[in-house]
Design goal:
Blueprint lengths: L3 E7 L5 E4 L4 H10 L6 E5 L5 H12 L3 E5 L2 E5 L7 E2 L1 H4 L9 H8 L1 E5 L12 H8 L4 E5 L2 E5 L8 E3 L5 H11 L5 E5 L5 H12 L4 E2 L5 E5 L10 E3 L4 H14 L3 E4 L7 H9 L3 E5 L2 E5 L9 E2 L11 H9 L4 E5 L8 H7 L4 E5 L2 E5 L8 E3 L3 H13 L2 E6 L2 H6 L3 H7 L3 E6 L2
Parallel strand pairs: 2-15, 3-14, 6-7, 10-11, 18-19, 22-23
Antiparallel strand pairs: 1-23, 1-24, 3-5, 4-5, 7-9, 8-9, 11-13, 12-13, 15-17, 16-17, 19-21, 20-21
The chain binds ligand EPZ.
Length: 423
């Protein structure tokens, strides 16, 4: 497959209205949860991105039959009979590990390749394992393959997570729904995507309460009482925040629709701190700016704190602000690679362990750059849109993992860009 790159001709004004796709970080787990339904679960508003294709491959390998029509997937898991997630798929996408909980719930056992790390960090799963072990799961590792068994079945327990891990919360949730008795997950992740998963599990007959809070209670039900359902994925708050950054960069006005503004309270607060005006209604957010960008400090934290998945995008705002901003990355050990690429475009950034000190500059210059992860890639395209001259963004397969038709959407917002095949 020839590699492609995105060529951006700046500077542009980024404004208009864009409807965001369904949330990648919800849809992937909703698809995994369909294993529990033992029939055909229909999920709407699934984004057309490569990570979804990988999850489809994982489920198909397990024996599921998937038919899709636009953004709607019908996933028939009746015939799911295998419980092995192969390395070549897990290594492509860490989120494949999200099938672990549902496979254990359905079969009482599972085999999954241990996910490797990625550009932004080690991406361990120790909290997934500790949490599931508390429910009676036993793990062995055989040549990189995780082997899960439940000799005495799944037993509900009161478990405290050391850190509100999104993935660990989700895997525990999907196992606990059929565990005997009550499970309480303390220090649970509170992301909107967790709430979406809890809602779908309840539609399937599970008994989950407290989704979106730090304490989630699950009353176990028999596996055969769970049934397929029809569910619509929530809008993608990170895609929305990415486009809002574009509007903030050049003044907008830019409106995003299809997402609950409550999912982006901290990002909206920071946009206002950067000197933007932000207006919201029940399912849209509009950003505009007339004065200079103001320097603003940011700490990335678990939801409802500032999302790490918007860190690169907001670093771009800081790079053009009238002063010095400090961004602290608390979730991943190596998520400042975007800074190195932005410095090649003229940004003035100093990295001190998990702090980035950003001294605003008056403008950026177009340059050849490389996407290191999907959020950095998306931010580099925005940087090219506001820079003087042409920017060539390489390794855009990262962007395709999480943004549906990113070039098409930005074109509609006034950006002069195209995808071309690398010579
Ligand atoms: C989810 O990853 C998202 N991915 C990430 O989005 C997001 O950045 C992250 O949550 C935090 O919000 C999906 O949902 C597919 P974590 P996840 O478990 O579940 C460490 C994007 O750009 N950790 O909350 O992997 C871990 O290494 C992606 O869309 C352990 O040490 O996040 C990380 O440093 C990037 N042990 C931190 O905790 C564990 O057992 C947060 O991880 C689990 C996690």
């Amino acid at each position: 497959m020839p590699k492609e790159l995105i060529v951006v001709h700046g500077p542009c004004t980024i404004s208009g209205t864009i409807h965001v796709s369904g949330a990648k970080n919800s849809a992937l787990k909703l698809m995994a949860a369909s294993i529990l339904g033992q029939g055909t679960t229909t999920i709407h508003n699934i984004p057309n991105i490569s990570d979804i294709s990988v999850m489809s491959d994982v489920l198909t390998r397990l024996g599921a039959r998937i038919s899709r029509e636009g953004h709607t997937f019908a996933i028939d898991t009746t015939e799911v009979n295998s419980f092995e997630t192969p390395y070549e798929l897990v290594s492509k996408m860490r989120a494949s590990i999200s099938v672990l909980g549902p496979l254990i719930a359905r079969f009482g056992c599972a085999r999954a390749a241990m996910p490797g790390g990625c550009q932004i960090g080690a991406r361990k799963i120790d909290m997934h394992l500790v949490g599931l072990e508390a429910l009676g799961v036993q793990f062995d590792v055989d040549h990189g393959i995780l082997i899960a068994s439940t000799p005495a079945g799944l037993i509900g327990a009161h478990v405290m997570l050391e850190f509100p891990s999104v993935g660990a919360t989700e895997n525990m949730l999907m196992a606990a729904v059929v565990a005997e008795g009550e499970t309480v997950i303390d220090n649970a992740a509170r992301e909107p995507e967790i709430v979406d998963l809890c809602n779908m599990l309840n539609q399937m007959g599970a008994k989950v309460s407290g989704g979106g809070t730090s304490s989630i209670t699950i009353e176990g039900v028999p596996l055969d009482s769970l049934h397929p359902c029809e569910h619509t994925t929530v809008g993608d708050r990170i895609e929305a925040g990415t486009f809002l950054t574009g509007g903030a960069l050049t003044g907008g006005p830019l409106q995003v629709t299809g997402v609950d503004p409550d999912y982006l309270k901290m990002a909206i607060m920071k946009l206002r701190a950067f000197g933007c005006m932000v207006e919201t209604d029940s399912s849209s957010i509009t950003v505009s700016r007339t004065g200079d960008l103001q320097p603003t400090d940011i700490q990335t934290l678990p939801h409802p704190g500032f999302p790490t998945d918007l860190q690169a995008q907001f670093m771009l705002l800081a790079a053009l602000a009238d002063g010095v901003s400090v961004i602290t990355e608390n979730l991943f050990e190596n998520r400042f690679m975007f800074a190195a690429e932005l410095m090649r475009m003229g940004a003035d950034i100093t990295l001190e362990e998990h702090h980035a000190i950003i001294r605003g500059v008056s403008h950026l210059q177009g340059a050849p750059v490389s996407a290191t992860d999907l959020r950095a890639g998306a931010a580099l395209v925005l940087a090219g849109a506001v820079a003087d001259g042409t920017t060539w963004v390489h390794d855009i397969e990262h962007i395709d993992r999480g943004y549906e038709d990113y070039v098409g959407k930005l074109s509609c917002l006034g950006v002069d860009l195209e995808r071309i095949i690398e010579a």
